[in-house]
Amino acid sequence: MLNRDYILSVIEKKLDSGDIPGAIRFIESLIQDNPNDIEAYNLLAIAYRLKGDFDKAMSVLKKSLKLDPDYPDTHYHIGLLHYERGDYIKAIEEFYKAIENYLPKEKNWTSDAYTALGETFYKLGMYEDAIKSWKKALKIYPKNRRAKYYLKKIDSGKVKKVKSPIPIFDFIRFSDIKIDEYLKQKGKDKFDSENEYKKVLRKIISTWNNEVAKSSDKLKRMTDKEKIQFFKSIKIKF
């Protein structure tokens, strides 16, 4: 049996060179030797994502979640898949799960997750949140080139604002309503910490994905007043 570290080095070279089929063969050999190799499953998902087979990549990541529901890399890669498919709200939820579960010593990975989170906020037209995420990424890991790049573009005024998909405005309205409800329940006018905000936002995103998003066609036919009433009717257990 070949040394695992050697196989991983071969896989990395094949992925870098674009030999995706070759990388997949080596990764599958690792999984065959150890069906619980969660790192190998994530590598396999990366390979399929690079190949453009998003459905296969997601299928592999779901297997990874069964091995460890809290494994941060799995949530990070699921987030990337949602991002590339344009499912930005789902991507945000997964990036937050990754950030929550990375160990303190895994600063570069946590920083990457914040960078991806910023990219997702930017796609949604949530520019202030995007900038905060990129600054957080650099604070955690100052060598993060992607975060530096985006913040440099922001400072130079060269970043163009993208047109947000219409549903995001409904999400922002829904989020604002639920945040107000939460703060009133707690008897305060602002969050005590960033962690508290993230926890509340994750629940709001989860509720949006599981309940509101299913009514997207219905939302398109609603007036603004009807939407507000609909959003207020949905209950969240904070």
From TrEMBL:
Keyword line: Repeat, TPR repeat
Pfam families registered for this protein in UniProt: TPR_12, TPR_19
Keyword Repeat: yes
Each TPR repeat, start to end: 38-71, 72-105, 111-144
InterPro entries from the UniProt entry: TPR-like_helical_dom_sf, TPR_rpt, Ycf3
Annotated coiled-coil segments of the chain: none
Protein name: Tetratricopeptide repeat-containing protein
Organism: Candidatus Thermokryptus mobilis
